[in-house]
Design brief:
The chain is an alpha/beta fold. The chain folds into two domains: 47 residues; 249 residues, Leucine-rich repeat, LRR (right-handed beta-alpha superhelix) (Alpha-Beta Horseshoe). 15% of the residues lie in helices and 21% in strands. It contains one helix and 24 strands. The longest helix has 45 residues. The radius of gyration is 31 Å and the shape is elongated.
């Protein structure tokens, strides 16, 4: 009788041991499977591919290893639309002369084409919605640009913009209706810029937006413009006349400083003050219309 009970106990213990072993093995298997799956998934998400010199990670073109002078950026890579040109993707490429972007591109990252000193011509996508600071900074061979109406803000109104800053050869700029804000320092130092058409939708001209654009002689500021930032036209030596529409409610300090050929100015009847050194250094200024709305003329406004 005791022998039979001992045999039964052994059977129970064996069954329990096997059950525990099964549970442990199942648990270990699940951990391993989950880990491997996660690693594979992570690898897939972060894996970049290179095709024709273009380095692409998902929807973002992150770099270019080629030396072609004329490139057409692909619209689709691995069945995925390229929507973003990443930060610094072509920065410092001295081979590039022309770039054509597909309409799938919606964003051009910070410094994407900065210091591309040979770049002369850029075809922008019709669906572009974001053009980040320094994107084409110091592209000293760029001659003309036309930005699409899908774009509402160029660069940034706050802090550094310089989207086309120091593009010394830039002569002609076409800004289509839809653009509301020309960010700070956008065309700073574009010394050859002569022709620019401002869109009817424009509301803000940012700080230093056209600073040192020495060859601009005429600029038509539309009825939708509300604000002109500090030093927006600083050092525009050839600017001859300015008419501020009645939509303009404020102009910044140093706004037209050192516009030495400026001879005539008509101010908005919504303007309440003429800020510090707004027209300082305008040695050729011979006539100016100041409306009754102006109650304050700050120190050295016409110094």
């Amino acid at each position: 009788m005791r022998l039979m009970m001992m045999k039964d106990c052994k059977k129970v213990l064996c069954f329990i041991a096997l059950l525990l072993l099964s549970i442990v093995m199942s648990f270990v298997y699940n951990i391993i499977t989950t880990t491997v799956y996660a690693e594979e998934e992570n690898t897939t998400l972060n894996e970049s591919v290179e095709i024709g010199g273009f380095i692409v990670d998902g929807k973002t073109l992150v770099g270019y290893n080629g030396q072609d002078t004329d490139i057409i950026i692909p619209k689709v890579v691995n069945n995925v639309n390229i929507e973003i040109i990443g930060e610094g993707a072509f920065e410092g490429n001295t081979y590039l002369k022309t770039v054509t972007m597909p309409d799938s591109i919606q964003s051009i990252g910070k410094r994407a084409f900065a210091d591309c000193s040979s770049l002369k011509d850029v075809t922008f996508p019709s669906n572009l919605v974001e053009l980040n600071p320094f994107a084409f900074y110091n592209c000293t061979s760029l001659v003309e640009i036309a930005l699409p109406s899908s774009l509402s803000v160029i660069g940034s109104s706050v802090g550094d913009g310089y989207v086309f800053g120091n593009c010394e050869s830039l002569k002609s700029v076409e800004l289509n209706d839809g653009i509301k804000d020309i960010g700070s320092y956008t065309f700073y130092g574009c010394k050859q810029l002569e022709n620019i058409s401002l869109p009817e939708t424009l509301e803000i001209i940012g700080t230093w937006a056209f600073g040192y654009c020495e060859k601009i002689a005429d600029i038509n500021i539309g009825e939708s413009v509300k604000e002109i930032g500090s030093a927006a036209f600083y050092g525009c030596l050839n600017l001859s006349e300015i008419v501020l529409p009645n939509s303009v409610t404020s102009i910044g300090t140093h706004c037209f400083r050192y516009c030495s050929n400026l001879s005539g100015v008509t101010l908005s009847n919504q303007l309440k003050s003429i800020p510090y050194r707004a027209f300082s250094g305008c040695s050729g200024l011979s006539k100016i219309f100041i409306p009754s709305s102006v109650k304050i003329v700050e120190k050295e406004a016409f110094y």
